[in-house]
Batch of 4 targets.
Target 1
Amino acid sequence: MKNKSARIVSPDQEKQRKLFENADDAVAHLQALYAQAVRFLCDQFSATLRDGAPDETRFRAFYPELRITTTSYALTDSRLSFGHVADPGSYATTITRPDLFANYLRQQIGLLIKNHGVPVEVGPSLTPMPVHFAVASNSAITVPQEGAGDFILRDVFDVPDLSTTHDDIVNGLGFTYEDGAHPLAPFTAQRVDYSLARIAHYTATDPVHFQNHVLFTNYQFYVDEFEGYARAMLANPASGYTSFVATGNIEITDPAAPIAHPQKMPQMPTYHLKRADGNGITLVNIGVGPSNAKTATDHIAVLRPHAWIMVGHCAGLRNSQRLGDFVLAHAYLREDKVLDDDLPVWVPVPALAEIQVALENAVAHVTELAGYELKRIMRTGTVASLDNRNWELRDHTGPVQRLSQSRAIALDMESATIAANGFRFRVPYGTLLCVSDKPLHGELKLPGMASEFYKTQVSRHLLIGIRAMETLRDMPLERLHSRKLRSFEETAFL
């Protein structure tokens, strides 16, 4: 049981609440406050491990906080979906890793100051920083599991708290901070810290390597092609790409440099083709199934990518389709079930014009087909995502009837989940699949057929995804992050 009467020792931050009219200065102060809190907890934790826990004492540091207070209904550009608050009042967000999010914070804070003409306030928040997250970047310190140390961890330090680790803001559940302030950003600091730790665990790469454009796939074949493409880009100084990071944080800048793959691969091997401005491409092999798709997107969302796209394989449902044809999803039949509690199935998940156009143009560019001729190899329609990989082995009457009524043209297990979570987290999303089997027409994915399919299709499918992302990279953010993904009451931050 926690000792509520213990003396609380914290870093001296009483005089560190300041107003800023410049985004760079505000971010610098956020970084200073965060570094002070982390240093304090690391020092006290190391001392406690070495000397034992002091009597009747708790050590506590707080996340820094960003706040803005407005007293009028500011006239903002109605075309913008972010960068401003809708009503007068106080808006705040707790901040973690301001080093990792520096560019994002400068951009969002700068828009707030510009659009409202008032300063932002930076100071310590009321939310304690869990010691686990404070020491995460210090490889010399390891937090022992409960019972493994000589003291009860929760009696001396704050630990992760589910009351501040949730999706209430993005799910629209009316979250406010302890002092009544409305949320300024879509995630609390502790929710972000939790996901950063999960990202490192599931992908075996540091979140710092993630780029703003994320491709998801469900086959290792795409990874091999991605590495080959990355090496070609590193050999071309005009490409704008600076390095390639493989699973295990192995980073190369020389296109001929060897990559030693780890003996034990993580659950979701991840690779990054980086640019200096962060607008490169990350490829995540999420494997098969909606659970993996939800897990990956739940956590990557806190990095606030500018787009994510699924480029995987699917079952073609129409007799007119051929193996290797492309499917551009413009609607989703959601039978994956993993997001039903967060985003009810009655919520429509619309296609986003900017993503759709980028993908269609990329298909035309890579295949050298256009207009009516493009219809020979690509269909646009509904993609159904199920949670049962072996649905073919059950009675077909029910599933086939639903698929037919929905006008579905393809079936997989991940695309609807990725699109639905993109909708939920306000991350622009899209899906371009490749038909690898046609179970309703006797063409099952058998080894020999699959081998030939992979040889001919994976390379250009991946290239299409990359070309689409490069198009989106050159698009103004205010156009890509449009109002279609925003609800009645939105956070000012993307």
Target 2
Amino acid sequence: MQSEEYWDPKIELMQRGELENLQLKRLKYQLRRCYERSAFFRLKFKRAGVQPDDIKKLDDLSKVPFLFKGELREEQRRYGVNRYIIETKNLREAYPTSGTTGAPVLSFWTDNDKEYIIDVTARTLWSMGLRGEHKVQNAFTYELWAAGFSIHYAVQKIGGFVLPIGSGKTTLQVKYLIELAPDVLVTTPSLALRIGSRLQELGFDASDLSLKFGAFGGEPGTAIPSTRRRIEGMLGIEAYDYFGMAEIAPSFASECKEKAGLHWSEDYHLIEVIDPKTGERVEEGEKGVLVITHLVKEATPMIRYWTGDITKLEYEKCACGRTHVRSPQGILGRTDDMVIYQGISFYPSEVEEILREFPELGPEYKIYFENGGMGGSSKCVVEVEYNKDLHIEDPSKLQEIISERLYDSLGVWLHVRIVDKLLTPYVGSKIRRVYH
């Protein structure tokens, strides 16, 4: 039963030893299910020389091979989904991945899967302050993107009111923010910035809104301090980072009111951070690739799923009292979004952190490579639109200043171009920033 502060205090305040005992019990059962019921997992485990009985403690999970999205794509292409669906009874829904990195992969929900997903989503929303008296403008897409539905179901479970507006439709978003007067906005950081810009264009400002807070996920942004400040300033709210993925659960990690990083739901998911070069777990506080194992998912459980997201973990109890492990700076980037230029590697989020410091710039930007022509080397270009509400006296001078700031931060010179208008397209429900 929820309390004023916690959705499920017994779980959220569980001591480390008790939590790990619960994880081990669920992990053993999950591995046994996968081995016995799935030809896909059984073959994968046998090739690695591991059986479920080999896992006697949580650290033994390192014996189990990682699961990559490419494997699931190939499995689905060759055999369909039948070989890796573990539980076929009571299947209720299926959702594809976004398709930003390749062909979408389907994830299925049973009745119990749906119940756990709604529960963990309600937990995240409750931790940010959502209560039964609140109205939510849900601007996550409802077009086969699971997060739109998980938010919808969870708001209703809490007892709140939800407007299923979906993504995009920036002017319509503004219309309902004014007319319906919702308390909460749930969307991507990029759409939040577009909504803020549209509000300004239409002559509104934050004081015209009734919003109290917003939950922003689906792409990096809210954990970037300068982006968070801009969203909060434009919309007059507290902005919280949110994380999910269709393969695992669409909305299962979030910040609490302390804004001290993503809280992971460790009763439902076993969280690891792995060094991509060695395949070994990194020490607490070190960066690596996020790897997640389902502990209760029935239909399509993921075992040591290699997410491609870069993060780090902190086990110290949060000031809010919750004991589950956190990622103090959220998701730092993705392995497939990393840019390598002149021997220096960086993520779009590091560029965004600098761009958001300049009020003269608008919300849209992209990073791409431009060929230097015959005999010329390619150059990395950061193209960003200017803020139409502010007049730029000398764009070329501002470009130089931004290039210098990027060099100071990244250690490499990028070519900055300020343009009148830039339309950054979405791939599925997520915005695309890097063009290789």
Target 3
Amino acid sequence: MDGEFKIVCFQKDHDRLQPGFYFSSLQKGAATFDLRFKKPNEGNFLAQAALHSIEHMLATALRAGAYGEHILYFGPMGCRTGFYLLTENMRAADAFDAVKTAIGEALRYEQVPGARRQECGNYLEHDLTGAKAELSAYLALLNALPAEALAHEEARMAEKEGA
């Protein structure tokens, strides 16, 4: 396997990752943020139906929000510990603000957007209540992060932009 292309997220020691909000990489002008809801490899993963609903809810709320034109992609990690947010022309602080605002909006949803048979390839697997519980817990985690944590992500992003 020597000499093979290495995916950025596979180069991280997942046993050391903690739930939080992280700048992950800058590739081809797109910034990737790691929205880590759960600690990897601990057995406490996002339930599939809740994860699926969060994907629909935050993808909708992020694109409909103030930074919608800068959102390229929002989707789940296969390991079910969080989500990836891909943006363009956004600082880490703006992405952080967009995520928190989108979660607040998603928590007001009375149904999962795009969850009808015609709109979703697995429309029977949604859990609005479970999604809201996970989103509430993640928002509490984000609100408890010290300012230094976000400043660190801003600095990491600036370093990559300058490289």
Target 4
Amino acid sequence: MSQAKVEEHKEEKLHRKEIVKKQKRNRFIGWVVGIAICCAAVVWIGWSLYGTVKSSQEEAAKDKQTVVTPVDLSSLTNYASSILKDSTSSN
């Protein structure tokens, strides 16, 4: 090994505890930042969905009108009564 590599290895060996401590700290900070970003994204998506649903519900409430459609069931009633008459007269 060259003298430069030997000196570099000695320097690394001397400061190994500080290097490992710095790596652990950086890893922890990375985890915290990652979790914070994920939480922020979830809150943002939830807030957006809430706003969209709320505005669509308000819009639906404004536009809500009761629609009444008349249905003529007299022909169905006549048909049912004629079947009943036929069944009672055949017995």
